[in-house]
Write the structure tokens for this entry.
Amino acid sequence: MKTNSSRFYITTTLPYVNAKPHLGFAMEIIRADIIARYHGALGEEVFFNTGTDEHGQKIYDKAIELGQTPQAYVDELAEKFRDLITPLGISSDIHFIRTTDQNHIEAAQEFWRQCDHNGFIYKKNYQTKYCVGCELEKTDSELVDGKCPLHSNLILEIRDEENYFFKFSAFGDKLLAFYEARPDFIFPAERVNEMKALIERGLQDFSISRLATKMSWGIPVPGDETQVMYVWFDALVNYVSAVGWPDDQDSFKKWWLDNGGVVQYCGKDNLRQQTAMWQAMLMAADIPNSKCVIVEGFVTSGGQKMSKSAGNVVDPLAVVEKYGTDALRYFVAGELAMFEDSDFTWERFHDAYNSKLANGLGNLVSRVMKMSESYLPEPVTVGEVALPDEFKKWLDVFDIGRATDLIWQKITELDLKIQATQPFKLIKEARPAAEKIVAELVQGVAEIAEMLSFIMPATAEKIKVLIKENKMPEPLFLRKN
């Protein structure tokens, strides 16, 4: 996806604060950060958004279970997500939105009014099967053995009440036309077939409110305080409220209207909400659609989706504490599949750390900089290092894994060059030739550092300083037993 603007707006989904952060969200925010850093390096002004989704039944139930008010509960959990920013090496100027922020609450209510004014909201009695885990109604065709396939440990609720509905069914043809006109809207492209199939089966209107007497923890529906907004309707509006809609039209014009919308990261369990429901809601409110949506696979554990409800989550801070920030960033970029499911085990992480970081990158930098310090009279003048076109090609389509592979191909290339030329032997009999080879190796390491600057920024900066000072480093990555 080529940008047509000097600005770039990217967002994660907003994680639901019914438990502490886990590795799945760490993966998403790290990858979004890599893309944000890349676009910043291209000279674009970047707005990078994340935050927390803080309304809904699960949060209300959890707060009551713990004997807390919902607000006190979400205040505590939101800080745990905000506290991920530094240990994960996320850009320090990231914007952090909470759906309990007053400006977001007002924006969600105005969004409702716009959709209602345009004729896409109505009220009716209904009965439905409801998964609390997904916070979504479920049709029989979506169930496996009568249960939600994503939350098979939860019993579906039968809900029978009067709520407001969004006329999702009015947008089937519009969405199909939109997908046809925007073939680069969903990454990977094959995911659009799932949405086309959903639409061709017939879109069902969905409930966008709950009775406040049954679930009070939500944004009041404008003009009807007996109802609160459905959590998905509320949370999705953050993508426009974060950039000023509706009050700060200058900001909204800058980041959305003139910029072609937002680049959204999400997990594959958010595919319907992000690429169909939200896009229909934007159409209903007369707001241009998002720029594109990147749909990731799950991080699994033993083949099962890693999730809070399944109880098999990995704490990203525990990984950072044991192996370091850039080790986790490498693993997310280079070892986990970009668009399909990937299994995490501590053993797999440990092996990747030793082979790719300690023995691979770390060993190469040590060997090259030891020869440079020993054989060269002064630091190598590197100058401006251009990113390889192929590296940029993969980041332009959000395939961070293939871009990362190019870095390790370069590491292998330099290792082979050392083996073939053996400058540590050549220095004794042909010093000028050996010095030239070492300078070329340092230049290669500088190219690696430039590519690493988005993926492992702290490590990249260390390498750049070593080259500037012509120093052999302490080990960048100590081998783990």
User: Anything to note?
Assistant: The first strand starts at residue 7 and ends at 11. The domain at 7-296 is CATH 3.40.50.620 (Rossmann fold). The chain is about 50% helix and 15% strand. The CA atoms of residues 249 and 379 lie 51 Å apart.
